[in-house]
Amino acid sequence: MGHLSAIDLFGYWLGIFLTFAILSFLYKDNPVYKIAEHLFIGVSIGYVVTLQYFDVIKPKLVENLAEGNLRYLIGLALALMLFVKAVSKRWSWLGRYPIGFVVGFYAGLQINGVQADLTKQMEPAMSSVVVDKVNVNADPAEALQLLPGMNPSIAKRIVEVRAEKPFASIDEIDEIPGLPQWQLDDLEEARGAFNGLDAQASVSSGDTFWFGTFAKLLMLMGLIASLVYFYFSVEHKGAIGKVSRFGVWVLMIGFGAAFGYTVQGRLALAIGRALDVLGRDKDPALAAQIDGGVVAVISIVVIVGGIVAWELLLRRRRESDTNK
Q1: 246: containing domain
Q2: Count of structural domains, the chain
Q3: What pLDDT is recorded for position 1?
Q4: Could you tell me the pTM of the whole model?
Q5: Which tens digits make up the pLDDT trace of 100-115?
Q6: Does residue 178 sit in helix, strand or coil?
Q7: Cα 15 from Cα 99, distance rounded (Å)
Q8: Residue 24 lies in a domain
Q9: What DSSP line would sit under 113-148, residue for residue?
């Protein structure tokens, strides 16, 4: 790999410095963090404005007006009416029309989107609670890919093998000829009678996947209990109260799982940033050029020094104000 240009190398170094500048907020709000925050906001706004011009304004407005499509002046007029409030309080009421148009337009789009999502959520609740095992001798490759230890190449090979000779038992799955050993090992590790390959797959139709059936039944009960919790036409006492209480637990588990997923996502971002700073996700030659560890130490020293100087300056100002 060739040497990085000066501007690319500076970009990597600046990214490392800004990473620790943002983390300096863990101490408290400080000028170093403010610089990084304002730079981030400024770059983001500049990027969005540039993107909107080249992706929206130029192709949708400028080019159409240049071709003589004057009906696009209506959109330009509505856009300009949004800024009237900033210019004149007397004519600020003109801004209500484009706002009303935008709100009504997107409300109509969102209603259709919500209806589609609601329909998708209703389909599993209205389907059979009993979950059948996947038939490796009859089901398509798309269904086979959902089984533990499977991938598209294994599913394709299973379809080819069963065309010549159907499988007599699931034990033959991890002995399929023509597959590399690591894929056979994955299939062997995926075996299991509780929730593994043996539990979810069969060589015949009509066998029941009991754990999947229990999980679907539990989800259905949780859905009904959650809806009961929001049913206020009946006082939540007796059996209704107990079901409603169970619904609260289901909701709390759902919220907790969503929060945990969000936290894990943020941790993944932090880990990814740490790997980037240390150069673990780069080619060794590129990482050696950047020397992220040394740059990180220098950045920390500069940031700590800046915060200390800022604290000393604040202390002197307080003492000066006190003496006055």
Answers
A1: 216-278
A2: 2
A3: 52
A4: 0.65
A5: 988 998 888 888 777 7
A6: coil
A7: 39
A8: no
A9: HHHHHHHHHHHHHHS-SPPBPEETTTS-HHHHTTST
